[in-house]
């Protein structure tokens, strides 16, 4: 187990460097060559980094409300954000003068807590929420149909204060301090223009987005994301992940839709549940992550197989069955969720769970039907609560330094 | 900010202890601009006898012919207070002497002592020596000192009234006076905080104390008033509070803050709002945090206003931004006015507090740029 994980991580580094190299070549053509290294993910490229980038270990996700009514101020901030993001993802300070290079009387242009730390594979990914496309900024006509608000799912106990948002930024890195530093600086730059609506720290990626990564475990102790879309599955990504020309407004072509769900896990009751019941609920065994009809993790589950009692071996309300593409019209997702523990809840219970993140070409055909099935039938619902929800349109990547986040949308 | 019942008391106190005119000082009142400009103030009107004057010392004679206590102000652009007289009770007359350079000003009467007041344009012309940048900064510290002086006068007055009510065992009256006395304290907090030992004696919260440390000041009496609902043993604390306030006022009126300190003070006041007032930590027993909130913002604005001429020269766009964001904070706060005062903190929703917090952050960000600008680099 340990050995396999080490090999997986080493492989991830190689793939990361290869991807980065390709982008660096393109950047060179624009005279913007950047020194790439194994722990540095290119900021500029055809796609936004942080989607198929091999999942880093740590997350700081934040959703903002736009509080200005001045479109120019918002665009100005997005330009400042882009410049800062381009710098920070390359391991530099948020502003040119940095944490200690400015005037003694002025607040520093970088908060400084990442000084001396490596880039740690930091990626910053921006998304625009449905609420941004109201009357404030004249964006109604640019709202993609796929960005329709998610329906109410049975059993949802969403906290509005932890849900939605006009903008989001996903920061992923292999060092939590690097991810937090990035979000903190963007929030600082955005003061007066945007206001943090909610944010979430995550650790222990619960998905693998590359075949080079071992499948991680969620806080229920089960492998999560075995059937995930992987960065190497190019044609599947074109079908299920990237928005195509003609899917909706042009500004989203090459982008992807992001769904977030904060799923509180009731870990104490779970921990009192028998192994047999736990495995029955997931439809996989806990040790290998193999479907109950197979032996190893990547064996295809066989939902037709019945046991000696005549009942399906993988129960009709087992998680793996309900979520499986074959049971959902082939719908696939690229998940890159994270575990979270927000301390304890005052009753001595661990305030913990899964911060689910999924990217897709159209949530109406992917996340929504899958989640509707799960919400109605999944036996796991007894042990989880969906407390936060988010939907964001993540545009394609920026090709050069004169581009900025949201340009195709606002200009 | 003040209840009508209270205003009569305040006015009575003001009549016996006249507030120092906030202008250039009484001794040279005769020099310069000549005749007094009469101001007839009523509850609905503010008749200023002249709308222009020569540069120099200008004297206004304000007669309150209305039924509400009023105030009179002279503002430079950006509501920079050039001079003010507070607490003019019905039937009373007061003078304001103020030095005005050539420029455009506004006068204002504030019947009921709230709001923007009834405004009139006031033009001052004539030659005034061209000010260098440094002269503008030097002037800023003088202007701010004048502001501090006006606030400290009222601070002593209001704290005296509060202490008197406490010692008289009048819990209801003391509760009404508590947030009002604190208003003047909160407006000049950066000055007060420059005297490290006195600030905690006057303003420490229970949570601030170390084990075994003696607790004195406003918040100890606040707890007596709102929790114990008994001030029969609060007399010594009240006496100590007044003595400490008098000491700090003496010191505050001699200290001069540098322009950079002014800039940082204006930011510090907003930080106070963002950390203590938004959360309701400051007035945890009385929930009168919005009084402190408003006073902190006013104090911040006063410091920025003093710096305004220098800032206009260095970064006019920033001044415009500050004007807009101060106005936005005022507008957001105004929604929570309750009569002459403010709603209690614990009656505001989380969404209300979030909006206030956002507006304060939006204002604090550009204000954080002022110090470096003032430092002139």
Automatic annotation (TrEMBL), chain A:
Coiled coil: none annotated. The keyword Iron applies. Its cofactor is heme b. Keywords: Heme, Iron, Metal-binding, Oxidoreductase, Peroxidase, Signal. Its EC number is 1.11.1.-. Residues 1-20 form the signal peptide. It is found in: Cell envelope. Residues 48-203 form the Dyp-type peroxidase N-terminal domain. Residues 215-397 form the Dyp-type peroxidase C-terminal domain. Its main location: other. GO terms for cellular component: cell envelope; cytosol. Binds 1 heme b (iron(II)-protoporphyrin IX) group non-covalently per subunit. Belongs to the DyP-type peroxidase family. Involved in the recovery of exogenous heme iron. Extracts iron from heme while preserving the protoporphyrin ring intact. This is Deferrochelatase. It comes from Paractinoplanes abujensis.
TrEMBL record, chain B:
This is Iron uptake system component EfeO. It comes from the Bacteria. Residues 1-20 form the signal peptide. GO terms for cellular component: periplasmic space. Its main location: periplasm. Pfam families: Cupredoxin_1 (PF13473), Peptidase_M75 (PF09375). The lineage of its organism: Bacteria, Bacillati, Actinomycetota, Actinomycetes, Micromonosporales. It is found in: Periplasm. Residues 140-369 form the Imelysin-like domain. It comes from Paractinoplanes abujensis. Belongs to the EfeM/EfeO family. The keyword Signal applies. Residues 27-114 form the EfeO-type cupredoxin-like domain. Keywords: Signal. Transmembrane segments: none annotated.
């Amino acid at each position: 187990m340990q050995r396999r994980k080490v090999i997986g991580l080493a492989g991830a580094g190689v793939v990361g460097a290869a991807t980065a190299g390709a982008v660096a070549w393109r950047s060179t053509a624009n005279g913007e060559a950047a020194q790439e290294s194994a722990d540095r993910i290119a900021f500029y490229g055809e796609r936004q980094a942080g989607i198929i980038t091999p999942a880093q270990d740590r997350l700081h996700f934040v959703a903002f409300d736009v509080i200005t009514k001045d479109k120019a101020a918002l665009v100005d901030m997005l330009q400042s954000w882009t410049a800062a993001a381009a710098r920070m993802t390359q391991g530099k300070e948020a502003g040119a003068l940095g944490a200690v290079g400015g005037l003694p009387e002025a607040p520093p242009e970088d908060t400084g807590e990442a000084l001396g730390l490596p880039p740690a594979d930091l990626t910053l990914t921006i998304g625009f929420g449905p609420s941004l496309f109201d009357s404030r900024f004249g964006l109604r006509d640019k709202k993609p149909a796929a960005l329709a608000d998610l329906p109410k799912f049975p059993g949802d106990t969403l906290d509005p204060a932890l849900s939605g948002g006009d903008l989001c930024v996903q920061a992923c890195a292999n060092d939590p301090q690097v991810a937090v530093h990035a979000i903190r600086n963007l929030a600082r730059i955005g003061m007066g223009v945007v206001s943090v609506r909610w944010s979430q720290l995550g650790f222990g990626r619960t998905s693998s987005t590359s075949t080079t990564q071992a499948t991680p475990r969620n806080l229920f102790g089960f492998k999560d994301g075995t059937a995930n879309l992987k960065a190497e599955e190019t044609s599947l990504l074109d079908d299920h992940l990237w928005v195509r020309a003609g899917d909706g407004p042009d500004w989203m072509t090459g982008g992807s839709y992001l769904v977030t769900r904060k799923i509180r896990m009731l870990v104490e009751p779970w921990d009192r549940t028998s192994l047999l019941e736990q495995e029955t609920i997931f439809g996989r065994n806990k040790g290998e992550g193999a479907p109950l009809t197979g032996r190893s993790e990547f064996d295809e589950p066989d939902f037709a197989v019945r046991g000696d009692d005549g009942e399906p071996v993988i129960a009709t309300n087992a998680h793996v069955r309900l979520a499986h593409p074959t049971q959902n019209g082939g719908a696939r997702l690229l998940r890159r969720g994270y575990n979270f523990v927000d301390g304890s809840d005052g009753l001595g219970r661990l305030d913990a769970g899964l911060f689910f993140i999924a990217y897709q070409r159209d949530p109406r055909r992917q996340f929504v039907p899958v989640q509707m099935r799960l919400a109605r039938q999944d036996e796991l619902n007894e042990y989880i609560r969906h407390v936060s929800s988010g939907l964001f349109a993540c545009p394609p990547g920026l090709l050069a330094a004169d581009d900025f986040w949201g340009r195709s949308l606002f200009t | 900010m003040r209840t009508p019942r209270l205003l009569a008391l305040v006015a009575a106190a003001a009549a016996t202890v006249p507030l120092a005119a906030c202008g250039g000082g009484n001794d040279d009142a005769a020099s310069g601009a000549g005749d007094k400009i009469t101001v007839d103030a009523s509850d609905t009107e503010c008749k200023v006898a002249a709308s222009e004057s020569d540069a120099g010392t200008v004297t206004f004679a304000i007669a309150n012919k209305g039924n509400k206590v009023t105030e009179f102000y002279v503002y430079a652009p950006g509501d920079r207070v050039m001079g003010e007289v507070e607490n003019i009770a019905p039937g009373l007359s007061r003078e304001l002497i103020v030095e005005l350079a050539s420029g455009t000003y506004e006068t204002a009467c504030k019947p009921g002592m709230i709001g923007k007041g009834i405004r009139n344009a006031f033009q001052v012309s004539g030659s005034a020596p061209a000010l260098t940048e440094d002269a503008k900064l030097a002037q800023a510290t003088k202007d701010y000192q004048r502001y501090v002086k006006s606030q400290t006068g009222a601070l002593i007055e209001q704290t005296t009234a509060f202490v008197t009510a406490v010692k008289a065992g009048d819990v209801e009256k003391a509760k009404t006076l508590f947030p009002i006395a604190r208003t003047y304290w909160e407006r000049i907090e950066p000055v007060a905080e420059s005297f490290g030992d006195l600030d905690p004696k006057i303003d420490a919260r229970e949570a601030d104390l170390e084990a075994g440390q003696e607790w004195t000041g406003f918040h100890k009496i606040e707890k007596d008033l709102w929790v114990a609902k008994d001030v029969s043993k609060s007399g010594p604390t009240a006496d100590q509070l007044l003595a400490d306030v008098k000491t700090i006022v003496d010191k505050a009126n001699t200290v001069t803050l540098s322009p950079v300190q002014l800039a940082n003070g204006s930011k510090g006041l907003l930080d106070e709002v963002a950390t203590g007032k938004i959360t309701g930590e400051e007035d945890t027993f009385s929930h009168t945090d919005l009084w402190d909130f408003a006073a902190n913002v006013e104090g911040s604005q006063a410091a920025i206003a003093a710096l305004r001429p220098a800032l206009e020269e260095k970064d006019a766009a920033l001044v415009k931004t500050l004007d807009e964001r101060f106005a936005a904070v005022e507008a957001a706060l105004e929604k929570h006015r309750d009569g002459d005062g403010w709603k209690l903190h614990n009656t505001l929703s989380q969404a209300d507090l979030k909006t206030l917090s956002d507006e304060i952050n939006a204002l604090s960000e550009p204000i954080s740029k002022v110090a470096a600008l003032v430092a002139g680099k």
